[in-house]
Amino acid sequence: MSRKVEILDALIEIFNTKGLDANFSISELARKVDIGKSTIYEYFDTKDEILTQAMIRIFERAIESVSAHEPNLNLPFEQLLKEELHYVFHLATESSNIFKYIMPMQSEALPKHMKNSGIGRELRKTAQKFEAMFTSVLTKGVEEQYLHVDDIAIQGTLFAALISGSINRLSNANVEQQETVNLDQYIDALYDTILYIFK
After folding, report:
1. Are the C-beta atoms of 111 and 46 separated by less than 8 Å?
2. 43, 53, 77, 178: which could form a disulfide with 4 (CB 3.0–4.6 Å)?
3. Domain 59-197 carries which CATH code?
4. CATH for the 1-44 domain, from 3.90.25.10, 3.40.630.30, 1.10.10.60, 3.20.20.140
């Protein structure tokens, strides 16, 4: 492993422990890698450059996963929705630090220096893909007459927000309570809630 990657991975470890908004000092990062502070600047020009490259490393994996994912619209609505909920939940648990940034309406929560960067644009595209995915699932539910929707655009956004908020809350509950919620039961309950709201 190159020293540059080692430095980035050490920062990612700090993020995994303290969250993406964590403040860190170059001294702290150097201690973690067991090198001198000046050595870090042999690989990076500024603290912002280290931060940006570490975040890009974190985000790329999740962005690739979402970009490659396509819902199977040939499935019946209930199976389709439950499979998509499983997919999103697993993404949230595997990438809990970045889940909030790739869900619809959340990319504005990005740190300021990331919003107009290439990664910021990719995250916004990823959020749009998620919203399109949720809208296609909602459309399938309407076509099969499980759901009643007056305005797909507006209620598609509500549908996406309901699902992403529920999944985000479940991910946090698992961390906070140090116990695992039964995912199948949770998804069954969320499915019933969606049928009730959009009946």
Report:
1. no
2. 43
3. 1.10.357
4. 1.10.10.60
Dihedral angle at the C-alpha atoms of 130, 132, 137, 142, nearest 10 degrees?
A: 150
Taking the C-alpha atoms of residue 153 and residue 132, their distance in angstroms, rounded to an integer, is 10
Segment 42-69 mean pLDDT: 82
Q: Residue holding tokens 């107009």? A: 116
Structure tokens at 188: 């069954």
Q: Where in the chain is the domain with CATH 1.10.10.60?
A: 1-44
Q: What angle do CA 109, 45, 62 make, to 5 degrees?
A: 35
DSSP state of 108: G
pLDDT tens digits, 86-141: 888 877 776 665 666 666 555 556 666 666 667 777 777 777 887 788 888 988 99
User: Could you tell me which of 4, 123, 151 has the C-alpha nearest to residue 66?
Assistant: 123
CB 41 within 8 A of CB 30: no
Q: Where in the chain is the domain with CATH 1.10.357?
A: 59-197
Residue with tokens 């040939």: 74
Give me the chain's average pLDDT, please. 80
